[in-house]
């Protein structure tokens, strides 16, 4: 084999190895990608039914019901509500009327089964997506009341 052919074979082999590595990295990234949806987006059917995603908003007042380690509560963006079930220990900052982000899956009945619940850590902080959803819901509610 000529040196020119050897160099070409090494280059092609190197490109194949780099391509394979890029494929595995992108595949791992895609499978671990988790999107954020508001209760209004879930109600309109934008959220996936068979994939893990996050829902965020405020814990509705009077909606928290505890049964041993299972907690049922409602997440709202003031326009729409999503029922959430979580089994486990909740964060200390989890309270009614406070912001929350839950990660899990939506079942066929509209119940969001959370595998993780995150409570906001500061009274002034809210994820930008959740803040935008709350603001938009307030605008929509005001527009409906004017009609």
Q: Can you write the helix and strand succession as a string?
A: HEHEEEEEEH
> How much helix is in the residues?
25-40%
Domain count: 2
Major pleated sheet: 5 strands, mixed, barrel
Q: At the third CATH level, what is the topology name of the largest domain?
A: OB fold (Dihydrolipoamide Acetyltransferase, E2P)
Radius of gyration: 23 Å
The CATH C-level class name of the largest domain: Mainly Beta
User: What's the average pLDDT?
Assistant: 85
Shape: elongated
As laid out across the biggest beta sheet, the strand order is: 2-4-5-7-6
Which spans of ≥5 residues are poorly predicted at pLDDT below 50? none
Number of strands: 7
CATH architecture of the largest domain: Beta Barrel
Approximate strand percentage: 25-35%
């Amino acid at each position: 084999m000529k040196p020119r052919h050897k160099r070409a074979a090494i280059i092609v082999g190197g490109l194949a190895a780099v391509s394979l590595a890029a494929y595995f990295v992108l595949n791992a990234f895609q499978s671990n990608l988790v999107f954020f949806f508001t209760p209004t987006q879930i109600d309109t059917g934008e959220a996936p039914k068979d994939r893990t995603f996050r829902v965020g908003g405020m814990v509705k007042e009077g909606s928290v019901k505890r049964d041993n380690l299972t907690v049922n509560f409602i997440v709202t963006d003031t326009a729409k509500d999503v029922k959430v079930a979580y089994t486990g220990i909740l964060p200390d900052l989890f309270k009614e009327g406070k912001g929350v982000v839950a990660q899990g899956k939506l079942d066929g009945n509209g119940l969001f089964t959370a595998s993780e619940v995150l409570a906001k850590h500061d009274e002034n902080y809210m994820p930008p997506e959740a803040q935008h959803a709350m603001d938009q819901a307030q605008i929509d509610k005001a527009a409906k009341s004017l009609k």
